[in-house]
Amino acid sequence: MLRNLQPEKPATIGFIACDAYEEVTREIWRGVTHAVREANINMIFFAGGPIHDPIGYRHQGNVIYDLITPERIDGLIILASSLNFAASKEEMRSFLQRFQQISIICLEEEISDLPCLMKDDYGGLKLAIEHL
After folding, report:
1. Which residues make Cβ contacts (< 8 Å) with residue 107, sequence separation at least 6?
2. Residue ranges in the chain assigned as alpha helix (H)
3. Distances (CA, A) of 94 to 22, 26, 97
4. Quick one: how far is CA 79 from the chain centroid?
5. How far apart are CA 92 and CA 132, in angstroms?
6. Could you give the CA distance from residue 40 to residue 125 in angstroms, rounded to a whole number?
7. pLDDT of 6
8. Alpha-carbon distance 118 to 80, whole Å?
9. Residue 39: which of 73, 70, 93, 2 has the closest Cα?
10. Dihedral angle computed from the Cα positions of residues 86, 88, 92 and 95, in that order, rounded to the nearest 10 degrees
11. pLDDT tens profile 16-67
12. What is the pTM of this model?
């Protein structure tokens, strides 16, 4: 449930992903964007790179995640699989602790006790093959 404290103002959801140039991220982003437009919800995309990126300077992009606060964001959608390829599960949990006052849903990876949506690659490919 979104925590919109100002009923006259549309809720704002943050979408966190490593970047916007991977095809999977773009497709998910398109779907989320379509849904929020229909629901009259604002969306902010936070593309700050992976958590603990091993390539020196790239971790500096993580600073954008500091802009995510309960005063700005009512809920978060996190494309977890794009964020934590360089971080352990414990580091990812620690990262998410900073957002504990915001409703969160994870995509593509189960983390702690957070709700998560998983895509079904196997089932999708099976349907595609059956169709062909």
Report:
1. 28, 77, 78, 79, 80, 81, 116, 117, 119
2. 23-38, 80-83, 89-97, 121-131
3. 25, 26, 5
4. 4
5. 40
6. 33
7. 56
8. 11
9. 2
10. -80
11. 998 888 888 888 889 999 999 999 999 999 999 888 888 878 888 899 999 9
12. 0.82
